[in-house]
Automatic annotation (TrEMBL):
Name under which the protein is recorded: EEF1A lysine methyltransferase 1
EC number in record: 2.1.1.-
Functional summary from the UniProt entry: Protein-lysine methyltransferase that selectively catalyzes the trimethylation of EEF1A at 'Lys-79'.
Recorded superkingdom: Eukaryota
Gene Ontology biological-process annotations: methylation
Catalytic activities: L-lysyl-[protein] + 3 S-adenosyl-L-methionine = N(6),N(6),N(6)-trimethyl-L-lysyl-[protein] + 3 S-adenosyl-L-homocysteine + 3 H(+)
Keyword check for Methyltransferase: yes
Organism (species): Erinaceus europaeus (Western European hedgehog)
UniProt subcellular location: Cytoplasm
Keywords: Cytoplasm, Methyltransferase, Transferase
Length: 216
């Protein structure tokens, strides 16, 4: 390139460059791409998007649910997390080589988790990749994004397709009867907590003997 061509390239001030860098840093933070290594599995490292009805569990709840999932799946078990990214993140932190886990999630920011991320839209409950064969998971843990009959019904289709039997469902207390009808689950004593206080009471439901029914 000639000197005259160089003269035609717009030059940015130091202030503008700093502002531009700040913008890029914010974009990286929002997409989760600014984190590397095991840090990308920290609960909350990808911020909640309330427009997608995302409300992450508190670290204590994420840990309790992950430990329950590992116990329920057993050594070498397979766990599917449906719309439950904070449980997936905690499982990745805990699992070692004892289990395998995948995340079915609508938010493509979670694609940073590579092959363990599977794009999932509850409106199309059985639109799943071929390698997610029917009844191939020891446990499915699901947290439908919306407290609606349609969302629970469609998510239940996915759950029943994937699980060999065991289900751990997290949703509002108002969905108790419908959850029991669709999945044969019962409410646990354990009460999950979120990073933010929600207006709706949330509960856990299972269809097997669970440690979540122990003393709290």
């Amino acid at each position: 390139m000639s000197d005259s061509e160089d003269d035609n390239i717009p030059q940015l001030s130091a202030h503008t460059l700093a502002a531009l860098q700040e913008f890029y840093d914010e974009q990286k933070q929002q997409t989760g791409l600014c984190v590397v290594g095991e840090e990308k599995y920290n609960v909350g490292v990808i911020e909640e998007n309330w427009q997608l009805s995302q409300f992450w569990y508190s670290p204590e709840t994420a840990l309790r649910l992950a430990e329950e999932a590992i116990a329920a799946a057993g050594k070498g078990g397979r766990i599917a997390c449906v719309s439950a990214p904070s449980v997936y993140q905690k499982l990745r932190e805990l699992r070692g080589n004892s289990i395998s886990v995948c995340l079915l999630e609508y938010d493509r920011r979670f694609a940073i988790y590579g092959e363990e991320f599977i794009f999932y839209d509850y409106h199309h409950p059985l639109d799943l990749p071929d390698h997610l064969t029917a009844h191939s998971f020891d446990l499915v843990i699901a947290d439908p994004p919306y407290l609606s009959s349609e969302c629970l019904q469609k998510t239940a289709e996915t759950i029943k397709h994937l699980t060999q039997g065991r289900v751990l469902l997290c949703t509002g207390a108002v969905m108790e009867e419908e959850a029991a009808r669709l999945l044969g689950v019962r409410m646990c004593k354990f009460i999950p907590k979120h990073s933010w206080t929600l207006a709706n009471e949330f509960r856990c439901y299972v269809n097997y003997d669970s440690g979540l029914d122990g003393d709290m």
